[in-house]
Design brief:
Elements: H1 57-68, H2 76-91, E1 101-105, E2 112-114, E3 119-123, H3 124-129, H4 133-148, H5 151-161, H6 163-174, H7 179-211, H8 218-236, H9 254-265, H10 278-285, E4 298-300, E5 303-306, E6 311-314, E7 320-323, E8 328-331, E9 337-345, H11 352-357, E10 367-374, E11 377-385, E12 389-398, E13 401-410, H12 414-424, E14 428-429, H13 432-436, E15 442-447, H14 454-461, H15 468-475, E16 489-494
Parallel strand pairs: 1-3
Antiparallel strand pairs: 2-3, 4-5, 5-6, 6-14, 7-8, 8-9, 9-13, 10-11, 11-12, 12-13, 15-16
């Protein structure tokens, strides 16, 4: 989504590929019959609730994480079950007197993290992928294991020692051409460090859910779901998945983790022993937003559409777009060109040309400023020419907001500048009909009839949605070879 800060466009332009290095995070989980409950004996223990000291590194990391994943997502039914599961797992952990706080992140990516103080973060995309209480318990138990094993503190220590990673943060911001390379190099470093941690946390998590009365094999089912989800995204992306917010991007291969989890789970019996309440969990996640949230803006190819703010814009041909909480970011193949779109509420009485003149880009003054119109909207444009990179900046006033577009190129040739200006002129207001064409999609539950097959349910409830059958299989833990069980509830997606 586009962040609406209190100050005028305070962030520098080129943060494409900038590493949100959550090195204080112990992140791991990225991307069925009901049995009797055998919960643990309840013991009342004095404990301490997790907290964030104002101004501390943990508070800053918490705020960065919330902002990076779309903000906190409020959903009372799922939150209540998550809290109850966390409390059951706390009682069987190595630190039963320390409580954990579960926070849902408003992101369609499949991911989970934990901070050393006991804050556990789960994306709504991960909640949608889970299919019973034992599966989601395995995720929470895995994160608690990172906290109790102090993995997050070890990762923070790595940050202070790793010169490469510390240099990435500064160097990438100044050189977007190097962003992909540096991001990949840092990913390899952190993945190698966390491999054993992840496997250790899997093992501790499986043992924890079994001790808490959940089915131990729920962990293996969820790891298998992660594998299916990752392969689906890779297939739909034609072999080039966007891994920035994906759980599998920096963690061990799923087959390895599944094999180890199965071995540990078998120590606690066969599948079906312990709580794996499918109906309870499906009822909890019914109604949550699925996929992109139109209230934050959505990316469709090289187009960015914001139904709430009622505008759309097309990036230049070949650009890939990423919608971050701070801005919409775009990059051309080879990272030779880049763009940024952000916005703010500004004084309507101040001329756009004056605003451009007083805001340098990467320390370079904007010159060659001209007033213009984009459609029927007032705008101003200027250029900031640097030694290596040059920038075309455009401000557009629409309603209470001023939108800022910045295009970057090495050299900024006349042809490149013309392409950038053409893209800026695609900025347009959405009609009410266009706004309605992008509704919020939510998880719904439907009961299968005796003659139903996956294709039938998809045609009935998800017609016209991209890759609907693939999403149906993945969100329900099914494959093309599986049959539906009459009377069982299944997840579908609809407005």
């Amino acid at each position: 989504m586009i962040a609406l800060g209190k100050r005028y466009f305070p962030a520098p332009l080129v943060r494409l590929g900038a590493l949100g290095l959550a090195l204080l995070l112990a992140g791991c989980f990225g991307d069925n019959a009901t049995t009797g409950k055998a919960g643990p004996r309840r013991v009342s223990l004095p404990g301490s609730a997790p907290s964030l000291e104002p101004g501390s590194a943990l508070e800053k990391e918490h705020k960065r994480l919330i902002a990076s994943f779309g903000g906190e997502y409020r959903h009372q039914k799922s939150q209540a079950i998550l809290n109850a599961i966390a409390d059951r797992l706390r009682l069987v952990s190595d630190r039963p007197n320390e409580y954990f706080r579960i926070i849902i992140l408003n992101s369609s990516s499949v991911n989970a993290f934990a901070l050393p103080n006991g804050y556990v973060y789960l994306t709504r995309g991960l909640l949608a992928l889970s299919n019973d209480t034992s599966e989601i318990a395995s995720v929470i138990a895995h994160e608690i294991a990172h906290v109790t094993n102090r993995h997050a503190l070890a990762r923070a220590e790595l940050e202070s020692q790793n010169v490469l990673v510390s240099r990435v943060v500064a160097e990438v911001l100044e050189n977007p051409g190097a962003s992909q390379f540096m991001r990949d190099q840092s990913r390899v470093t952190l993945a190698g460090f966390s491999r054993q941690q992840e496997i250790d946390a899997d093992e501790v998590g499986v043992r924890a859910i079994a001790k808490a009365g959940f089915e131990a094999h729920g962990a293996t089912r969820f790891l298998a779901a992660l594998d299916r989800s990752g392969r689906m995204r890779e297939s739909l992306a034609k072999g080039t998945p966007d891994e920035r917010n994906d759980i599998l991007a920096t963690h061990p291969t799923t087959p390895e983790r599944i094999a180890r989890a199965i071995a540990v789970a078998r120590q606690y019996g066969a599948p079906g022993i312990g709580e794996a309440d499918r109906g309870k969990w499906l009822g909890a996640v019914e109604g949550i937003v699925y996929g992109e949230d139109p209230m934050q803006g959505i990316v469709r190819g090289r187009s960015f559409i914001h139904p709430r703010l009622k505008f759309a814009i097309d990036a230049p041909d070949g650009f890939s777009l990423e919608n971050s909480p701070q801005a919409v970011l775009g990059v051309a193949p080879g990272a030779k060109e880049a763009m940024r779109l952000d916005s703010n509420r500004l004084d309507a009485g101040k001329a756009l040309s004056a605003l451009l003149a007083e805001q340098p880009i990467e320390g370079i003054k904007v010159t060659e400023i001209t007033e213009m119109k984009i459609g029927d909207l007032p705008a101003a444009s200027g250029v900031a020419r640097g030694a290596d990179w040059s920038f075309r900046a455009i401000l557009i006033r629409s309603g209470d907001y001023v939108y800022r577009l910045i295009f970057a190129a090495q050299g900024l040739s006349a042809a490149q500048d013309a392409r950038f200006l053409e893209a800026a002129r695609s900025f347009r207001r959405l009609t009410e009909e266009e706004v309605k064409a992008h509704p919020i999609h939510r998880l719904r539950l439907v009961s299968a009839r005796a003659d139903d097959k996956p294709d039938n349910l998809v045609a009935r409830y998800m017609a016209g949605q991209p890759n609907a059958i693939e999403h149906f299989y993945v969100m329900n833990g099914l494959g093309p070879q599986d049959s539906l069980v009459p009377g069982h509830q299944y997840k579908v997606v609809s407005p």
